[in-house]
Amino acid sequence: MTMKWSGVIPAMTTAFHEDLSVDHDFLARHCQWLVDSGCAGIVALGSLGEGATLTSTEKLAVLKTGVKALSGRAPVVAGISALSTAEAVSLAKAAEDAGCSGLMVLPPYVYLGDWRENKAHVSAVISATKLSCMLYNNPIAYKVDYVPEQVAELLAEHENLHAIKESSADVRRVMALRALCGDRLRILVGVDDVIVESIAAGAAGWIAGLVNAFPKESVELVRLASNGDTTAAFRLYSWFLPLLRLDTVPKFVQLIKLVQEEVGMGSARVRPPRLELAGAELAETKKVIANALATNPMK
Fold first, then answer.
1. What are the structural domains of the chain?
2. What is the 3-state secondary structure (H, E, C) of 87-100?
3. Sign of the C-alpha dihedral computed for residues 268, 273, 275 and 280 taken in this order
4. Strand arrangement, sheet containing 102-105
5. Which of 92, 6, 8, 23 is nearest to 270 (CA)?
6. How far apart are CA 12 and CA 49, in angstroms?
7. How far apart are CA 221 and CA 210, in angstroms?
């Protein structure tokens, strides 16, 4: 399946049973629900998918579940992250064999490295398959910043690098990337609370977090913003922002999974070292969610 790198593509959470094994039955239903609600595909094994807590065997099983659940209706993108380049390349090849349509290529875990080292790592992953690739730039979380000039350098050397998930939270990056890379690079927003501004600057899509619980609202927001319906987009965005901001803090995985639980589409279970929210933090978040549910303009 050809990757278009546009629209709303969920960065999917990974569902767990009570014993914290992967819940593949729910994972399949979740994939189908998201696509039925208008999403353009799914990204598995990303930060929100707790990829760092999954074994290689579990990662491959998650990808196979997503591919089988969607059965060609929409693409599955594999998040490729690892401690070593060899491990990342191996996962990329396994994702291709499993039927994935694209790769989201992350910098290596733990070791930051300089540009020469980071370029070698992501280049090895991009070159490992013929799959369409999206570079993941998240200097906030990973402390590695692929600046526009470096992205352009990679773009010139890899025909199958087609997109970037831009998570610097700096909307100016959208225009800077467009100026250097033109139509050769599709820019997707990776931070939930800058989506409308980024679309106005020329972003093509959204690798979204809160979409795991609110897919129809997420798809509608992008539709309104892309069509230039600023009044309606602002109205929906204003309602959505308290939830979208849950994607921008260190406990975003726990927070988004809690939102899923509160809307009846998933559970709050996470794998250690993460722990479920508790105390005042839990109570305050539930208030935010309850208010959102009570005032949802699309209900």
1. 7-227 (3.20.20.70)
2. HHHHHHHHHHHHCC
3. negative
4. 7-10, 205-208, 186-189, 161-166, 132-137, 102-105, 76-80, 42-44
5. 23
6. 6
7. 12
Number of residues in the chain: 299
pLDDT in tens, 186-217: 999 999 999 999 999 999 999 999 999 999 99
Does 10 sit behind a cis peptide bond, omega within 30 degrees of 0 on the bond before it?
no
Tokens of 150: 């470096």
Please report the beta strands in the chain, taking only residues with DSSP state E, as ranges in sequence order: 7-10, 42-44, 76-80, 102-105, 132-137, 161-166, 186-189, 205-208
Using a cut of 0.70, tell me whether the model's pTM lies above it: yes
d(C-alpha 226, C-alpha 40), whole Å: 15
Structure tokens at 133: 């690739």
Q: Which residue has the tokens 């191996």?
A: 90
Q: What is the dihedral of CA 249, 40, 162, 86, to 10 degrees?
A: 60
46: left (phi over 0), alpha (psi -120 to 50) or beta: beta
Give φ, ψ of 32 to 5 degrees. Answer: -65, -40
Give catalytic residue positions. Answer: 136, 165
Q: Are 252 and 281 in contact (CB under 8 A)?
A: no
Residue 136 near residue 104 (C-beta atoms within 8 A): yes
* Tens digits of residue pLDDT in 19-73: 999 999 999 999 999 999 999 999 999 999 999 999 999 999 999 999 999 999 9
Give the C-alpha separation, 294 to 299, whole Å.
9
H-type alpha helices, 158-245: 172-181, 195-201, 215-226, 230-244
Q: What sign results for the dihedral spanned by CA atoms 104, 114, 189, 258?
A: positive
